[in-house]
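A further point concerns the way the authors explain their paired sequence and structure data. Since the whole study asks how a given chain folds, the encoding of that fold should be made plain. A single example would do more here than another paragraph of explanation. An entry of this sort, consisting of the sequence and the corresponding backbone structure tokens, reads as follows:

_____
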Amino acid sequence: MASITASVYTSHVPAIGAAVDLGKTAEPYWQPVFRGYDFSRQWMKDHTPDVIFLVYNDHATAFSLDMIPTFAIGTAAEFQPADEGWGPRPVPKVIGHPELASHIAQSVIQDDFDLTIVNKMDVDHGLTVPLSLMCGQPEAWPCPVIPFAVNVVQYPVPSGRRCFELGKAIGRAVASFDRPLKVQIWGTGGMSHQLQGPRAGLINKAFDNMFLDRLIADPAGLAQVPHIDYVREAGSEGIELVMWLIARGAMADAAGGAKPHVAHRFYHVPASNTAVGHLILESGS
């Protein structure tokens, strides 16, 4: 059977992708950010999975205000980098895993979670920036990736509780797949940031680190935090953090299994007026 071997959590700041693409990672402003991922890139080489299930939010590229699914799973064989207004990022196309994606969709929908099945879409920086941070600039990404888009842009957005329970359902789905695949699940977005209004530029280090602490030690309790707390404490875009709860819910301990091991933790301010958070949890034995 397939198994989830680790979960990875990271911000997906678009300016990080631009820094990679333009060769600015060694500049004084950006160097501290990328140094925090040195461990992660080596870890990724040492722990390359068979498939990555990557939770992210679309930024009005695959979807628009005309149609916004709450949860959408990409079941295609491949996904092209999106043109977000200045041309597609110069990164490899994403190879999907239709068999596992379709199995997860079948299992999760039968588990009473409504998913939108997407057989064709482009993927934007929400998905490609985490891959760049973890994998560098390869000619091809190291394994297939299943995109899983969550609406955290247009209200109403899903609750942290709903996301955590969905993660549990995804964990069950992976465990019931009848091939011995090693699967990583990634939660992306956040941390605290606000892009508009009187509080534009808001960063809350205390909230961010509290979130990381509880994501490790008390994810079920963290899942009960209401939306208004994210908005008040982490800014209007801080709600992206509920996507991390999907990845955390898929880990074995959420269903009574072994607790995960913290392989790496990193936090840095600022990166293009946002806080960057990063965490790697390896499945317990």
Q: What stands out?
A: The chain has a mean pLDDT of 96. DSSP finds ten helices and ten strands in the chain.
